[in-house]
Amino acid sequence: MRILVVEDDPVLADGLLHVLRRSKYIVTHENNGKRADSLLAEQEFDLVILDMGLPDMDGAEILSRLRQRKNKVPVLILTARDNVQDRVLGLDMGADDYLTKPFDLPELEARVRSLLRRGVSASSALLQFGELLLDTVGHRATLGGHPLELTARELSVLEILMLRIDSVVSKEQLIKQLSGLGEEISENAIEVYMYRLRKNLKSGGVNIRTMRGLGYMLEKQ
Ligand code: CA
What we know:
Largest sheet: 5 strands, parallel
Number of helices: 9
Oligomer: single chain
Radius of gyration: 18 Å
Bound molecules: calcium ion
Low-confidence stretches: none
């Protein structure tokens, strides 16, 4: 599950990123309204957490442009406690839920889970490839009905590969997407994840094929 956090307050943004990453979501952060608008036009997210007051373009305009593009991604807006107008405007523009600042992080996590559940049908939350099943909301994977012991990173790598069945995913793409999770990722680390994933997948007829110089793709054996 990919979440975009658009928040220009560095302290609040840090807190949000910390709890969301701890909950194993792939999180991208943007602190500028205009850049957030371009990012939303270019990339797909499963949820957007949107502050209303932002530099260069405010949250209401970002939201209205998003809905004009017929993008239905769930949006949770963050508004100041005393600003009823912002809240009403946000909901009118097509926000799905709101939180007033300051809010408790556990409450935010609960809203995020609920919006993600509402936003995805059961079928798109579940990715399948052969005997391999990945629950992208519950962060669990099974192979032939048996649960796989995977770390958050390994699950994310698997999710990225499963979202692009029949196409090659390059190391650069993996590094770019995974760096949303926080720490920097090296090419060597990608190789380690692949090694671990292959070991886990070995018994179930699913393999990760290395396309020399191009990247990786899932295949059935
Ligand atoms: Ca702000």
